[in-house]
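Hey L., structure's done. Input below.
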Amino acid sequence: MPGKKKSTTKRAASARSAQKAVAQARSSHRRGGLLFGAGAVVVVALLVVVIVVATSSGSRQPGSASPNLTSPAAITAVGRDIAPPWPAPADATAAVRAAGLPMLDQEGAVEHIHAHLDVRVDGQPVEVPAFLGIDQTRGSISPVHTHDATGVIHIESPVTRQFSLGEFFSEWAVSLSADNLGALRATGGNTVRVYVNGTPRTGNPAAVMINAHDEITLIYGQPQPHESVPASYKFPQGE
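Output:
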């Protein structure tokens, strides 16, 4: 990769500089005596360590310590315990790492599917923000992300893998469980309910896996008689 080649070139240049410095120190040792030369070699050796460490640290690219995609999908969601609306987190990369997912240099092409998420609180829609999972400053992207505020979830992964609603909510930095949605608690008759294609799912909503063309509806509040829950979503042509 270009980043690795650049890092290798920098380390090689640092090594050549270090060798030259050591040779100069040895020359000084011959001219100035054993004590002076040994001291010079020690100083140069310390400088070499500093140069190599600094070069290595400076060559690390954002996301180099990110997790990979070999782990199963997380079935928990970590994030803010605040009331809606929930804007996109300020640091997309940190949120994606909290979800246990890596940041990629480009969208993956092995798995490419779309799903749709509706979020309702006390009967009112809550916007799913644009650019979740996308770090516009660093130019990196999660396999799970949004491009706009329509609620369409894009999964563009370099490997075939299941992704969960919990991972998506962690990227959104909104906590989610069977007992809460952000700061909203399942108390006083209020519940957290999730439907997939119009069918209710019991248990932990963060454990719901996202599949192609799913219509996922997450509802907080008191259940209403004859509550209308969408069973599908009309995706744009080609999605």
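The chain has a mean pLDDT of 81. The longest helix spans residues 2-32.

-- N.
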